[in-house]
Amino acid sequence: MRESWGGTSKDRIEARSHKRAEPRKNVQTAQISNYPLKTFVEEQAAKEGFPSVSEFLEELVREVQKRKARQELEDQLLEGLHSGGDNLTVNDQFWEEVHNQLDENTSKVDHP
Asked: Is the pTM of this model over 0.70?
């Protein structure tokens, strides 16, 4: 079953197992003061198999960053399409290049 913020629980756990081998520096804390919201976040973190609420929230932030990078790329593509410049051929090669650029932008978000 896909979760609303992307991927399955198993996908998330497997993805996390390959991340962050180095220790964290300059760790800051944040608190959720709204009790129902805090309870919801704690329950979701546990349900998704995250070892801590902090790691759950970090993953959510990474997902937002990826979504923003994808949206920026889409905006650039649309701007290029509407620019009226050279004729653009949309074929398999075009989409392969788009996906490669998206993968590159996404990896920059994952590994800044």
From this structure: no
What torsion do the CA atoms of 82, 87, 91, 93 make, to the nearest 10 degrees?
-100
Coil, helix or strand at residue 56: helix
Between the CA of residue 56 and those of 1, 7, 29, 59, 97, what are the distances in Å? Answer: 18, 13, 14, 5, 32
User: pLDDT tens, 3-22?
Assistant: 444 445 445 445 554 445 45
- Please say whether the beta carbons of 63 and 71 come within 8 A: no
CA angle in degrees (0–180, nearest 5) for 12-60-26: 105
Closest CA relative to residue 61, chosen from 81, 76, 41: 41
